[in-house]
Design goal:
With 440 residues, the protein is an alpha/beta fold. 20% of the residues lie in helices and 25% in strands. It folds into two domains: 304 residues, Alpha-Beta Barrel (TIM Barrel); 125 residues, Immunoglobulin-like (Sandwich). Strands 2, 3, 4, 5, 6, 7, 8, 9 and 12 form a nine-stranded mixed sheet that branches. The longest helix is centred in the last third of the chain and has 16 residues. The two termini are 24 Å apart.
């Protein structure tokens, strides 16, 4: 068993950026076709209860999506402290003509005076996914986006997620800041660092930095569909570790954006599995992530206030992939995902402890298991300190995962997902995470 721990304590970082700090979640409007206004209200209530201040509404070109945006804003009126802003998905929305610029501006203009519209530094917040090649009929990307901004009837705080070299940010004075979409995952087989964030901060040269926080990444589409089939390393309690990185560097960050609330196709959702999946059921159904949403409240408060909150309940969080990384799926025409080797065959545990204790990790046989290939392994134990503690243990093919928190001879929590086992012979590839939790 490998262990690490951090204790809950006040941080000494200053606010740094002007104004309030926010935690928002990226919400895929494209997955909300069946939503009613009440569904938006349910999402907002659930997000608010877990420390999230707003949604970045990622919308595309479908003709039904503007109505869902209107429903989202209408639902938000009953949540006066919840904020919304548009994130135009420029991999879908057209950005080639002056008419496209007008259409985008008109969409923003529908909500500029809405009480739940997020404003920052005196401007309505507008973001994107991509858009670094959108000229809108102008001579450059910068002038094209400036033409959009000019048609919005108020000041705009423009914070796109463009996939460009951050050292070139000076070529885009239209930007008020930037969102570093790919900074939330390690791009190789090493754990996450702050290096990508620092590159963006250097390139922004004092402009607003919106930082990504994300728990997971796996997408599995064939060339005949979306042609996306790869993983990013999501090991070693990525979500918590990334949050702690944001908190330690909060003086340089005005907003964290969680990737995502409901992007099932890329397996980094923290909200409930609902709405309309983008043909991702094969790797999403049966893989809940709501435990990560519960974890969010603790870290979001620390990011916004600069102090970790006190831990009033003991909690255990656990997650793992469903099969060995090198397993060969018998019946999967899409094939093994790229980067499959950039992960480890472990399960990961985070303990929020009200006081010291002992954690016992094991790989027991579960009712879902196939015939075991070896006797049950001896469990491993480690000390738990008051605060946040992280652990990992190697998984064993055909066995499950279990974490038990003890104080003396008293069992405080026993988290043993009975419907999980590490399947050595999967029929399809699935590098999504099974996530669970227990709480006193």
């Amino acid at each position: 068993m490998t262990t690490s721990s951090t204790t809950s304590a006040a941080t000494s970082t200053s606010t740094g950026t002007n104004g309030q700090k926010y935690v928002v979640a990226h919400h895929m409007v494209g997955n909300t076709y069946p939503y009613q206004q009440s569904d938006w209200a349910n999402d907002i209530a659930l997000a608010s209860a877990n420390g999230i201040d707003g949604f970045a509404l990622n919308y595309g070109r479908d003709d039904w999506q503007p109505a869902r945006l209107a429903d989202a804003y209408a639902a938000a009126t009953n949540f006066p402290n919840f904020r919304l802003f548009l994130s135009a998905d420029m991999s879908s929305v057209s950005g080639g003509s002056s008419g496209d610029a007008t259409n985008l501006a008109n969409q923003v203009n529908q909500f500029i005076n809405h009480p739940n519209q997020l404003k920052y530094n005196g401007g309505v917040v507008l973001s994107t996914f991509s858009g670094e090649n959108s000229y809108f009929g102008q001579g450059s990307v910068n002038s094209g986006w400036q033409s959009v901004i000019n048609q919005i009837g108020t000041t705009v705080t423009f914070i796109p997620a463009w996939f460009v070299d951050p050292s070139t940010f000076g070529n885009y004075p239209v930007m008020n800041g930037a969102f570093n979409w790919n900074g939330g995952w390690p791009m190789s087989n090493t754990d996450i660092t702050f290096a990508s964030d620092q590159q963006w901060l250097n390139g922004l040269n004092g402009k607003l930095y919106m930082a990504p926080v994300t728990p997971n990444f796996f997408t599995h589409y064939s060339p005949q569909t979306y042609n996306k089939n790869w993983i990013y390393r999501s090991d070693d309690n990525l979500y918590a570790t990334r949050w702690e990185m944001m908190i330690a560097n909060r003086a340089q960050i005005f907003m964290t954006e969680i990737i995502t609330w409901n992007d099932y196709g890329e397996s980094h959702y923290i909200g409930p599995i609902e709405g309309a999946q983008p043909n991702s059921q094969a790797w999403v159904n049966g893989y809940p992530h709501l435990a990560w949403l519960d974890m969010t409240g603790y870290y979001a408060q620390a990011f916004k206030t600069g102090s970790y909150p006190s831990i009033s309940k003991d909690k255990i969080y656990i997650y793992a992939r469903p099969h060995p990384k090198a397993a060969q799926a018998c019946c999967d025409s899409v094939g093994q995902p790229a980067n499959w080797q950039n992960t480890d065959d472990n399960f990961y545990v985070l303990v929020m402890a009200t006081s010291a204790g002992t954690i016992i990790l094991g790989t027991p046989q579960t009712p879902s298991s196939t015939t075991p290939t070896s006797p049950s392994a001896s469990p491993s134990s480690a000390a738990v300190t008051a605060g946040v503690n992280k652990f990992k243990l190697a998984l064993r093919p055909s066995y499950g995962m279990r974490a038990t928190l003890m104080r003396g001879s008293t069992t405080v929590l026993d988290l043993w997902p009975q419907d999980y086992y590490f399947n050595p012979s999967p029929s399809v590839y699935n590098f999504n995470a099974y996530v669970s939790m227990a709480s006193t």
